[in-house]
Amino acid sequence: MDFSSGKYNTILLRSVIMIIIILISFYIMKIKLVTSINVIISKNQNIAKSQNISLGQNISSEQKMACIVYIQDKLGRFGNRMFLIASAYGLARLHSCHLYVELEIINELKSVFILDLSPVLISSSTFNSLTRSSSKSMNRISQSVVCDYITTLTRPNAIPSGTIFELIGYWQSYLHFAKYDEELRQRIFVASQSILGKVSNFFIEFYQRQLDYRPQFLLENHQSFKKQLSQLNSTTWIGIHVRRSDFIPIHYSSDDAYLFDAIKYYTERYSNAHFIVASDDKSYCKKLFRNRSNIFLTPQTFSVGDDLVILSLCQHSIITGGTFGWWTGYLAGGEVIHDKIYPSGCSRREYYYPPWFLIDGNVRAHKNTEYIL
């Protein structure tokens, strides 16, 4: 036997085994290192999530001078606030600005809507950080608008970096937010679950009373509920908003002939037309429509928000003057008949009335004037 050859083979075998052990150890250490890094990243992501921020989106010193569209004014009523929010959102999106709205206004609208302004909305703490921690103070600009469309705001850098642009007044031109219509309808002015549940009972009771049929609605969201209503072929719902109390003294209130002409239009157009009436003068409407079996008033228990949501769920609309009625027609979609007696307050008719608002004849531009659009 050749013992020297056997000894060499033994040494070679031991060397190979040693190399394999070293490689295995290195591989195990690599796995542990990667796992440790992943754990650290995971922990950081969880921390970021718990603080409602995302990694890579912390405010840098450059971002601290970004533009901010700002609302603190609270003129008018609910419909006016909706115009302010919509216009401010449209401008913030257009110019890649932050949006900051005083909490009182946010809470008022959140009592009705989901109001998901997440792409641009910042909190009070972030607003303070942006405005107070900057190396140089931000330039503050305010603009007061009733309803005209400010075309200069569509230009690039109309709201430059380092500017706080405050909206004052009413901002009642839909053209400031027309580019973001779908976002307003699908994420922002979308009814909350609680209000959807409340108004769904109105429809359930109607179908049970009129047709001895109790529909089962899935209240996932505003749009899906609206779709379910439209698929019930037994009815075409038309919303009617009648504003009277504060309009009668200033001669803005619509007369009975306008309402009945508009009802006639839809009745002839849709054989199964049914009407839902919301008004600040229910006793007047109850008397006016007492002989109409296909016209129903919203319950006394309904709030302003409930009235707005139920009208927005209709397929078509009849509205009198005011921003509340305007928004019921805008959110409902379909055809919208608007009384021309209400002055738009704009210098041009198309600033206030979208093309699908059906108006017979000219409208007054301003109150106490014969100037028409």
UniProtKB/TrEMBL annotation:
Ranges that cross the membrane: 12-29
Entry's localization field: Golgi apparatus, Golgi stack membrane
GO biological process terms, semicolon-separated: carbohydrate metabolic process
CDD domains referenced in this protein's UniProt entry, alphabetically: Fut1_Fut2_like
Broad class of enzyme this protein falls into: transferase
InterPro entries given in the database record: Glyco_trans_11 (IPR002516)
Main location: Golgi
Family statement: Belongs to the glycosyltransferase 11 family.
Protein name as catalogued: L-Fucosyltransferase
Species assigned in the record: Adineta steineri
